Every structure is written in structure tokens, then in C-alpha cells.
Amino acid sequence: MxxxxxxxxxxxxxxxKSGEIVPYFQPLVEIRTGALLGFEVLARWPHLSRGVIxxxxxxxxxxxxxxxxxLTETILLQAFAATAALNSNLxxxxxxxxxxxxxxxxxxxIRRIAEYGAFPLDHLTIEITESALVDNLDLAGSIANGLxxxxxxxxxxxxxxxxxxxxxxxxxxxxxxxxxxxxxxSMIESxxxxxxxxxxxxxxxxxxxxxxxEGIENNTQADILRWLGCDIGQGWLYGPPFSVHDLPKxxxxxxxxxxxxxxGSSASALVSCMEPLPSQRLAQLQAIYDGAPVGxxxxxxxxxxxxxxxxxxxxxxxxxxxxxxxxxxxxxHPMVYTHIEPYLHxxxxxxxxxxxEIRKPTWLRDPDDVTHLSSFRPxxxxxGEIIGISIAVVDITERKQMEDALxxxxxxxxHMIELNPHIPWIMGADGKxxxxxxxxxxxxxxxxxxxxxxxxxDAVYPEDLKQVMTIVEASLESGDALDVEYRIxxxxxxxxxxxxxxxxxxxxxxxxxxxxxxxxxxxxxRLKQALRDAQAxxxxxxxxxxxxxxxxxxxx
Length: 556
Prior knowledge:
By secondary structure, the chain is of the alpha/beta class. It has helices at residues 2-18, 55-64, 68-85, 106-117, 137-149, 165-171, 181-186, 191-206, 219-228, 247-252, 267-272, 278-291, 310-315, 320-323, 328-331, 334-348, 397-419, 439-444, 448-451, 462-478, 522-551, and strands spanning 22-30, 36-47, 51-53, 91-95, 124-129, 153-159, 176-179, 210-213, 232-233, 295-300, 305-308, 353-359, 371-380, 386-395, 423-428, 433-436, 482-490, 493-505, 511-520.
């Protein structure tokens, strides 16, 4: 093994001088849009006889042999030259060895290489591993500040896998925070890994650092990271490391589309929840909670209150603080809890419960006769696992009272209509009956359904129908009030009726509906006819009497 390392060390010196060690480029992509932002520059040694020698094998040898500075210079010179030739505005990111963070000349070396390669240093990010900061944090801080003075950005690499990470974040002027690939690779299967990734991203957002996730291999990982608000991603999903010869082709080609909604979530919701910082999200949620016109709460899978707004808390005369950490079974009236418990377990099983009415006793403890409308929706984490129930409760007592009053009013007026001898009807602008009162069926023997549209004509005395339709059509055309008398067939034979109606117009004067009623005038018609007959008989008698007087001789 020692001989092999010695051989590699010897060949490494030669390869550095001959330019055999070359840069490879792995895409850095904006997770939200899929836009190509730049590349991480990686060292590759395609050995002529040994094949590709892995960086994990030759970089420790370069550090031991004091060649790491020369290796960094060789790689950066080639990378700067390649990107400068393309006139691209892309950023480059490169790792530096922990040994280099003990070398005060590193900032000068980086500046010299950039000047030689005509590369803008504000487009360069130096990645520092946590292990590089263990030995001498003060010296590392001095070198980091020197790099920052040049405009170079700094990234803390493999965050969470090293030592005293929070102290390092606070001590050095980092711009980026990189989530280690080990957490990204396992976060689909491991909830703990997801929580770690979420915590790292949230920490970066709180500190106003750009967050970068390594090792993204599939769309599901990208979707979760996008939902969590991670800024930049790299991994095989966006492309493997490639040589300088493929650089123009990769820059010109579009990145694969990876933006998709998570199951049960809309794309717009995913994007919108990425924008604010965690503190802003919390403030927004608190404002929504406090200002919502409905009672809101969140309970975990043990049915313990995690959050509750004052509107819901006030329904039970307990403060919001008194609910937190307490089980629903402790805070909700026993009769109510017995009623809603099955629905809560259904929600924990994934079912959304809406429109659940809870009537006296109320949601918590209130002696008044009240009604609440409740919904229980399962809340899921970024991987779709149920983590609790979102509860919404609204007081619909007034609405229920209005509904009861309307039902009572409807029954009242329906009873009045049923007792009313008049038969109400509604006719469309086209002359077709839309609705008829229930007495129509009682009066004619024709069902209400049979009378709709033009079916009512079947009950009209055939000799009257033509006159009736002439009057109806004239009113439909002119909009004048409708008033027509005719005979209809009833259970008692033919009877005279009178139909009257007026139209209702819109703002433009267009007729919308006709509203009217039909009344039984048969007795009136018969009385009028009897009166006319009596008057005719009386007139005849008077005429006969006058004639006899004319024929009688005069006494004088």
C-alpha cells in the first residue's frame, strides 16, 4: 500500500505539470425554476494506465505531499479559462482543502489565478468543510475574511456532519449552507432525515443564507426540497459531472423539467410557501389564526392541541394557552367528544371530514342552544405522512335559526297558499308554465308536472283555447297585463276561471318572468248569466205590459 501511494505521489507531480488532472463540472440548478446557475468544479485524474483515479484517493496524497495548492491552481486555471472562453455569466464553486485554510496566502493565490484567467471573483464560491474549522477557527476566520474582501462567496459544505456547526456558522461570514448528500439521499424513506433537512434549510433561511442540497437523484427529492424552500440543487437528476469538452453543450441545453406538485398539493401552494422566511411564515400564520372569522386549531396524531386561536378557545371559556399540550378529551365536553371522536380517527386515517354539524351541547361548554359546523382535515408533511389534524369550527347558530325561521315561514305561507282559493303560477317569457300551485292538481285533476310547459292547455275548453292563446300571445309580445276568462275541465265538470298576471323585467326592460294567479269564477259567471237572464225576462215583461196598455181603449 505504501509503495502504491508513493507511486501515485510521483505520478501526481508529473500529471500536475503535464495537465493530466482536469476539471469536471457538475450543474448547480435553481430548484424552483430549473434554471442553470453554475457548476461545482471537481478534480478528475484520468490516468493513462490506471484508469480514473478517484479524488478521495489522490487528494489526501496531494495534501500530504504539499501539492494541494498546485492542484487547486491547476484546476481553477482550466475552469476559469473554459468559462471565460464561453462568455457565460455562470458561477463556479470549488472545494478547498482543510490544509489550505491554514495558509494565509490562499486569498492572494485565488486572486492571482482569477486575474490570470480573467474570471470575476464575485462569481466564485469557495466551499469549506466543517472539519477544516476544527483546528484553528481564528486563523480560518482570518483567511475567510480575506477571501470575502475579494468578493468571493463562502459556503459551509457537508453541514451537520462535522463538529460544532452552529459555532462555525456564527464565527465565519458564510453566504451558503450546503445540505449533506447523506441526508438528502435518505429523506424519502427516513422521516428523521427529512426533519434534519428541513431544519438545516430553515436555519439557512433564518440566517439569510442560500441553501444548496447535494446528491439530488430523483424528482421526489427535488419536490420535497422545493416545498421546504431549498434554493439550489445538484446531483444526478440535473446531470453528472462532465468534462470541459461538454461544457458548451450543457450550457446551451435546457435543464430537465423537475417542477411538480407534491401529492395533495397545488403547484402554486408549493411555490408560495417557499418565498417567506420561517419567521415570516410564522407571523403570517399567527395573523391568520388570530384574525380568522372561524375557530382554528391543530392537533397532533395523539389528539393533543398544538395550536388554537382565541376564537375557538373562547367557545369553551378556556384560554388558548390552557389548551396547548392538553388532549382534546380533556378540553372538549364529553358528550361532544364522544360524538366527534370517530370522525377524528377517520381524519387521522386520511379522510377529510367537512360539514359536520354539532348541536347542543356546544363545541366545548356552553349552556345555550347553539350549532357549530366543523371540519377535520388530515395534515401531511412534505412526504405525505399524516402528522395531525387541522380543525376548523364556525358558529352557525344564527344561520340555523334563520333556516328554521325560513322553514317555518315557508310552511306558513305554503299553508296559506294551499287554503287560498287562487292558484298561483309562474310563466316564462316564452309562455311556458314554469311552476304552478298545488291547488291546480286538486282543482283540475291534472298533476303539477302535467301542467308545466304548455300542458295546462289540455285542461282548457277546446272552444275557448284559441281566444285564450290570442290574448296570452298579445301580452307576451306587448308586456301588457294579462287578463283572460275561459273554461277548464275540473273534477266537477267545466268551470269558468279567470287568469291574471304581470311581467317582471330586468334593468334593460327585458321580460324575465310572468307572475299570476288563476281563480274560480264559475259561480260569479253563473250569477252574472242568471242576472242577465232575469234582466232579459224583466225587460220582456215590461215590453209586453207596455204593448197591452197601448191596445186598451181610453176612458176619456
